[in-house]
Amino acid sequence: MPTIRSSFFSSLDLSQFSQQIVAWQQSHGRHHLPWQNTRDPYRVWLSEIMLQQTQVTTVLGYYERFLQRFPTVADLAAGSDEEVMALWSGLGYYSRARNLHRCAQEVMSRFGGAFPPTVEELASLPGIGRSTASAIASFCFAVRAAILDANVKRVLTRALGFSDDLASSAAEKRLWALAEDLLPTTDLPTAMPRYTQGMMDLGAAICTPKKPSCLLCPVHGSCAARREGAPERYPVKTKKLKRTSASWWLLWVERADGAIWLEKRPAKGIWASLYCLPVYETAAQLQQAARDWGGAAPEPLAPFLHVLTHKDLHLHPERIHAENPPLPATAGGWYRRDQLSALGLPAPVRSLLQG
Q1: Are the CB atoms for 331 and 264 separated by under 8 Å?
Q2: Number of helices and strands (H, E) in the chain?
Q3: Measured on CA atoms in the order 114, 118, 124, 125, is the torsion positive or negative?
Q4: Would you list the DSSP string of 254-319?
Q5: How far apart are CA 185 and CA 183, in angstroms?
Q6: CA angle centred on 59, ends 56 and 64, rounded to 5°
Q7: First and final C-alpha spacing in the chain
Q8: Using CB atoms within 10 A of its CB, is residue 297 exposed (0-12), middle (13-18) or buried (19+)?
Q9: Helices 14-28 and 188-201, interaxial angle, to 10°?
Q10: Distance CA 203, CA 47 (A)
Q11: What H or E segment, with its residue span, contains residue 82?
């Protein structure tokens, strides 16, 4: 074993580590999720993309609805952008949905409708990074490949006592190498899916960010962080994104027949490519837009906060009724309420219009 890695394995037996994870997953891990117990790459890929930065309980309903409408990768590739975004609406991180659609189309055009079996080929597809590619390859093709999502980073850094700052790309590269050293080496068709799932399950249920249940962990006897008595010190990552905030004014224009004016957001930025009420950066801009519509003074509705990953959006909706609205200067369209469910709308806008 290379010298650079040897210090991390002073009390951690490589073969025993993977065996303990595999055995624990078989007895105590999760087995009830709808994307488990399958080696269908389409279903595994769909779940992996949906689960990025989203909790399992939230994903379950979306996953079921997606499969009902798009049961195969060919169905998804043939679907429209509007259908995909409408089904994704409310799940957040909308670039995932756009990449999901593009990925399905590339699987059809580049690989004849079959997901490729190698990590390198999988990672060449839109929206699939190294860790997601490794998960698909491990679950579906029993490839000996390490995953390194946030949960697994926490498990590994604690087990190994890996205190290098993961804000450094060099440190993350070292952790990738260590993760690969710990992978199973025998009976890969059975061991790799169980090991990969076991690492995910440990991070989700046992090796939690706060107050981990160390005594329930299958590797607690060799875990460096447990011996130190400070598991919450790991992982070390000093670089943090600064939270920002913004205030947006939303203009709800409604015709006499109840139709609502919606515009498609730009292809980049917050709520990219989703349908939305017109957005303004100041109250004065909204007031001018309301006058351009020819309606009465807008009715202020209750402002509310929408929390994104690194930004707080303070939303200020105001509504006008336009009896004979002029053709607006901006591109958009009128939509009846019974058409809203088929549109990709940001979750707070959908809640506002349905409330």
Answers
A1: yes
A2: 15, 8
A3: positive
A4: EETTS-EEEEEPPSSSTTTT-EES-EESSHHHHHHHHHHHT-SS-EE---EEEE-SSEEEEEEEEE
A5: 6
A6: 125
A7: 62
A8: exposed
A9: 70
A10: 17
A11: helix 81-88
Beta bridge partners of 307: 312
- Set 48, 263, 281, 318: catalytic member: 48
Whether 8 has a pLDDT exceeding 50, the answer reads yes
For helices 56-69 and 41-50, give the axis angle rounded to 10 degrees: 140
pLDDT per residue over 34-92, tens digit each?
999 899 999 999 999 999 988 899 999 999 999 999 999 999 999 999 999 999 988 88
Give, in order, the Cα–Cα distances in Å from 56 to each of 80, 255, 256, 352: 26, 40, 42, 25
- Return the C-alpha torsion angle 91, 92, 98, 99, nearest 10: -90
**Beta carbons of 336 and 259 less than 8 angstroms apart:** yes
Q: Under 8 Å CB-to-CB from 293, ≥6 apart: which residues?
A: 253, 320, 322, 325, 326, 328
- Residue 121 among the catalytic residues: no
Decide: 317 and 303 in contact? Cβ < 8 Å: yes
Where do we find the tokens 């000996």?
Answer: 144
**Distance between CA 202 and CA 197 in Å, rounded?**
9
Across the chain, mean pLDDT equals 91
